Amino acid sequence: MPRQPRLDIPNILHHVIVRGIERRDIFDDNHDRARFVSRLSELLTQSGTRCFAWALMSNHFHLLLMPTTVPLAQTMRRLLTGHAVYFNRRHKRTGHLFQNR
């Protein structure tokens, strides 16, 4: 049976948790973290999404987000795809970076 779609309700807080596949690191150093936060900031501005809190650990992160006009799924897809491409190129690796829900 397929999964139920995620709730993506505008103007409601969403606690987003993303973990590396097999609990592997998704940030190797401060450069990776800074690049991620910079990209997150750009996407939040473009999408009108508000960020109330964030926490980055080596193998996962938490975001407390409130989407407005752009669906949260679209913003997260752009953030995660961009970080995976960047991380794989920088660290000369291939394959998935993030765990499925």
UniProtKB/TrEMBL annotation:
Record GO biological process: DNA transposition
Gene3D superfamilies: Transposase IS200-like
Pfam entry (one): Y1_Tnp
Transposase IS200-like domain mapped to chain residues: 9-101
GO MF term (any one): transposase activity
Domain of life according to the entry: Bacteria
Spans through the membrane: none
Stated name of the protein: Transposase, Y1_Tnp domain-containing
Phylogenetic classification of the source organism: Bacteria, Pseudomonadati, Thermodesulfobacteriota, Desulfuromonadia, Geobacterales
